[in-house]
Amino acid sequence: TDRVYRNLKDYLTLDEFKHLEVHLVKENMIISEHASSHVKFMHGIKVLMAKNYIDNLSEEVKKGKNKKAQLGYYPQQAPVGYSNVDGPEGKRIIVPDPIKSKFVKRLFDLYSSGAYSVEELRKKLFEEGFNHKGKMYSKPKMLYILHDCFYIGKFIYNGVIYDGKHEPIISVELFNSVQKLFNQSKARAHDVEFIYTGLIRCGHCGCQLTAELKKGKYVY
Question: pTM value?
Fold first, then answer.
């Protein structure tokens, strides 16, 4: 039963096919519209047991990831500049990538100088060999890297900041200088003065949100 249905929606979907017979060989059971009420009842219980197994498995995975985060180990895929490898006792750990970590350090160094925009650095580093499967990193991805505290030895998981066990790529001073440059950047100029100008940023890429006036009265 637990191979046929992964959730209750699957069960309801198959139940709608009135002329369908499902032969559960291992359980010696045939489910159809002509099956007895007892067979249907027992099958329904097994469906709920299968769902409970999936729900419990999901809970255990979440518990394991939270526990790993509390111990200082990032429980997800390593960000750009790092790699997931097998560590002591067979545990997966995160270490700096010997090539891409240098590009990440260079990205922070160049941006902190104030001489380059993110778009310029995106193209410049691509020409130097910084890429993902041969393709240039997007501007939002570059901005995300420049805002990610993972590179100073911390990480955010489920809204909580943890001190990581991984090796930092850049210093806290360099990271803070980059964030300061972002905070000092000016919002887009408008003929109309909007409230909150320069105060709202995108939670994903860190760029400032701008406002527009449509039809002379609608603010977007």
Answer: 0.65
